[in-house]
């Protein structure tokens, strides 16, 4: 259970095993999938994957911050952040 | 966008059959779910990472009724957006 990480390469391998395509093609398709996901989060502010969860972008207002090293006050610009909201189904599977 | 729209877009943009796009999205999502269910991390370069966080149980109160409830310990996945995704959203 300790220290294992699933990476993009692992996912490419799993898909590769189920197609007649070569690895490079599968890799490009996975990159395309990720680009579509990113655009959806930017454009629709949400990407809903049933049975898994929702990736939601929301706006954070500008706020005053401080550089802890110089004590200088700075204004942090408004920005978009992404949060993951777990689906009820997946939550139940994890904690059932 | 939801999952079926994601599948449709993947299929159209790459000229692949809807069945293949469906398989790809399912393998992608199921791999992440399985990894997290086993307590593993997920790291998708440029997109973001997921890891499981443990939450301790506590005794809480239903604010509406005042009833005391026991909240059981739980583990939930936590997402951190990757650098590329953050920059893309803010560009």
UniProtKB/TrEMBL annotation, chain A:
SUPFAM superfamilies: IHF-like DNA-binding proteins. The keyword Magnesium does not apply. CDD domains: IHF_A. One of its GO terms (cellular component) is cytosol. One of its GO terms (molecular function) is structural constituent of chromatin. Pfam families: Bac_DNA_binding. One of its GO terms (biological process) is DNA recombination. Transmembrane segments: none annotated. It comes from the Bacteria. Keywords: DNA recombination, DNA-binding, Transcription, Transcription regulation, Translation regulation. Belongs to the bacterial histone-like protein family. This is Integration host factor subunit alpha.
From TrEMBL, chain B:
The keyword DNA-binding applies. It holds the Pfam family Bac_DNA_binding. Signal peptide: none annotated. GO terms for cellular component: cytosol. The keyword DNA-binding applies. SMART domains: BHL (SM00411). It comes from the Bacteria. Keywords: DNA-binding. One of its GO terms (molecular function) is DNA binding. Belongs to the bacterial histone-like protein family. This is DNA-binding protein. It comes from Halodesulfovibrio spirochaetisodalis.
